[in-house]
Amino acid sequence: MRQLALSSRLMYTRPLPISRLMGALADRAQLNTMQYGKRPYGVGFLVIGTDDTGPHLYEFNPTGNCFEYYAMSIGARNQSAKTYLESHFTEFTEADLDHLILHGIRALRETLPQNKQLDQASVTVAYVGPGADADPHSSSLREGQKFTVLEGDKLATWFERLGPSERQRAAAAAAEASAAAATENASSSADNAAASTDNASSASAPDQNTQASSDNTDNQPRPMDEN
């Protein structure tokens, strides 16, 4: 990739478009899957870059397939990160660099087992923006647009703003719903118990009336004996 990019700059005095670079790499990888005695490439990777058409993100795999994405993840447990990215990718077009880095770290955190925490020592962030393909010695290249790598203490600002993970939010929501259901069930049980007590009181009232009627009958005068 470096050789292709350098050749384009030396021969045509301009940087090689990202799409053409990835196309050339995909063609070379695909040939290795067709020719006898050739060994396919044994690695897949993500490529970020920028050219006259804007920023790009490509996924390359050893079969020679190469696709462009708004967001993508590869590697072990990558589906958890993909789920996060798919849920938030509509925000990316309007997000600034600060929020894009935050989304990237959050997506990476989703791939960890529940008993592990993401720390700064295990994370490296790289970014590049429009204007990075200009002459590196030119003063017109704005700071922050060239290819930059952040790691270690430089990531402290974003780690302080991570907040709860998607799994933690889901667990908290489930616990809240369970507590609300338990409270509602307890309230219903109490209402039913109160209703049962009222019914029992009503059922005892006829017994009292019957006793009162019996007493009244005893108090009535009896007819005199004709004899």
Main β-sheet, in a few words? 3 strands, antiparallel
Strand order of the largest sheet: 1-2-3
- In sequence order, what are the helices and strands, one letter per element? HHEEEHHEEHH
Number of strands: 5
Rg from Cα: 38 Å
Instruction: Tell me, rounded to a whole number, the average pLDDT.
Output: 79
Fraction of residues in H or I helices: 40-55%
Distance between the termini: 137 Å
**Residue fraction in strands:** 5-15%
Keywords: Proteasome
InterPro entries: Ntn_hydrolases_N, Proteasome_alpha, Proteasome_sua/b
Biased composition (Polar residues): 206-220
Protein name: Proteasome alpha-type subunits domain-containing protein
What does this structure look like?
The protein is mainly alpha-helical. The protein has a domain of 77 residues. It contains 6 helices and 5 strands; from the N terminus they run ααβββααββαα. The strands form 2 sheets. The chain has a 3-stranded antiparallel sheet with strand order 1-2-3, with helices on one face. Strands 4-5 form a two-stranded antiparallel sheet. A hairpin with a 5-residue loop joins β2 and β3. α3 packs antiparallel against α4. One of its GO terms (cellular component) is proteasome core complex. This is Proteasome alpha-type subunits domain-containing protein. Keywords: Proteasome. It holds the Pfam family Proteasome.
